[in-house]
């Protein structure tokens, strides 16, 4: 089986519906075809303002939601990044073959550092893509499913793998990004031209997997639309309605035209009620299962430890090879 690697930051108590549609549903389907590694990337999360107790809790909650959404810890290697030390160690080695200018060209860094200002921008934010490259390369990954915002980071990962291989001999597999399609991209319900994010400043337009159903229902009924009153897909002129159609289609497996037909001549109220029922029905069992898992943190931690062991054995083999190739003296 080809190897797959992907991860998510534990940056909120709950995942949002974009993570569910754009990542978890696809990962769930891919875990049978691939030898899949899914990581809760807590080391990456340290680049954001951090409360230690909250980070621990968010890490567990993120893992619980992966499982609740159908990632099976007996099938896929679902683990916590910091449990495998090789990530930080390989990131250091890779940083020594990364150009300063090369890292500075990463648009995510440019955006974030501009937003935060130089005093609030930590060096970890700058080296973030190098840690991500280490995540991927440690597992000799074939494919990396990511959103298009991460495409540049996977390109850097490929460049670093090729550079290392050319300099020190074949060591890393050069991974391929699998970019999620536009139809799997979800936008904020209140601001439907901005991507929905866990770390969005306002939560009014974010649908959280773990929210109470009535909160979710209200947010859907209040979603921004337009004055046309026609349920039709057009991302340019009707971003709000198009986004709701995308969610509807993704969760039901239906085609958008068939949904447009069903709601032809019926107005947005009916359409939103229909969507509300779809989302609530989808979220309810996931939420229940996640909360059950979180009720027994010791059992969850045990599962994560078993999977960390599986990840570690693969990662350590790659790291030892790297250490030998760059000329680090083996401890006797
Ligand atoms: P943050 O605000 O902390 O960056 P996020 O919601 O953007 O959080 P990530 O941890 O960056 O989530 O990404 C996790 C996964 O979810 C990635 O595979 C990413 O492509 C996917 N994803 C995130 N937001 C969306 C979205 N709005 N639509 C579809 N997929 C998404
Ligand atoms: Mg993100």
Question: What keyword list fits this structure?
Answer:
nucleotide-binding, Tryptophan--tRNA ligase, protein biosynthesis, binds magnesium ion, two-stranded parallel sheet, 332 residues, three-stranded parallel beta sheet, EC 6.1.1.2, single chain
**Compute the gyration radius: what is it?**
21 Å
Strand order of the largest sheet: 1-2-3
* Bound molecule kinds, no repeats: adenosine-5'-triphosphate, magnesium ion
Low-pLDDT sequence parts: none
Mean pLDDT over all positions:
96
Write the element-wise H/E pattern from the N-terminal end onward.
EHEHHEHHHHEHEHHHHH
Number of strands: 5
> Helix tally?
13
| Percent helix | 55-70%
How large a portion of the residues is in β-strands, by DSSP E? 5-15%
Biggest sheet record: 3 strands, parallel
Please state the structural category.
mainly alpha
Shape designation = globular
Distance between the termini: 35 Å
Subunit structure: Homodimer.
Subcellular location: Cytoplasm
Protein name: Tryptophan--tRNA ligase
Family: Belongs to the class-I aminoacyl-tRNA synthetase family.
């Amino acid at each position: 089986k080809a190897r797959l690697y992907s991860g998510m930051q534990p940056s909120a108590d709950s995942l949002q519906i974009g993570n569910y549609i754009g990542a978890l549903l696809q990962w769930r389907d891919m875990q049978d075809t691939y030898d899949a590694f899914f990581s809760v990337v807590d080391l990456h999360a340290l680049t954001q303002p951090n409360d230690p107790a909250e980070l621990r809790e968010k890490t567990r909650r993120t893992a619980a939601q992966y499982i609740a959404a159908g990632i099976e810890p007996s099938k896929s290697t679902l683990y916590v990044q910091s449990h495998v030390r090789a990530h930080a160690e390989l990131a250091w080695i890779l940083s020594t073959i990364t150009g300063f200018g090369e890292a500075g060209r990463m648009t995510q860094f440019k955006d974030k550092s501009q937003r935060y200002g130089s005093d609030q921008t930590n060096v970890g934010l700058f080296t973030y893509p190098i840690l991500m490259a280490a995540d991927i390369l440690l597992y000799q990954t074939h494919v990396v499913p990511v959103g298009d915002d991460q495409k540049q980071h996977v390109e850097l990962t490929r460049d670093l793998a090729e550079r290392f291989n050319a300099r020190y001999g074949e060591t890393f597999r050069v991974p391929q990004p699998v970019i999620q399609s536009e139809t799997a991209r979800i936008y904020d319900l209140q601001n439907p031209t901005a991507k929905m994010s866990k770390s969005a400043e306002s939560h009014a337009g974010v649908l959280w997997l773990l929210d109470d159903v009535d909160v979710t229902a209200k947010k859907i009924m209040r979603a921004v639309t337009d004055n046309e009153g026609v349920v039709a897909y057009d991302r340019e002129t009707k971003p709000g309605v198009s986004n709701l159609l995308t969610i509807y289609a993704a969760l039901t497996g239906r085609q958008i035209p068939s949904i447009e037909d069903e709601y032809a001549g019926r107005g947005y109220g009916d359409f939103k009620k229909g969507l509300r029922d779809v989302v609530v029905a989808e979220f309810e069992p996931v939420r229940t299962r996640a909360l059950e898992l979180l009720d027994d943190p010791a059992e969850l931690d045990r599962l994560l430890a078993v999977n960390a062991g599986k990840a570690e054995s693969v990662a350590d083999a790659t790291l030892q090879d790297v250490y030998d190739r760059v000329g680090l003296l083996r401890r006797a």
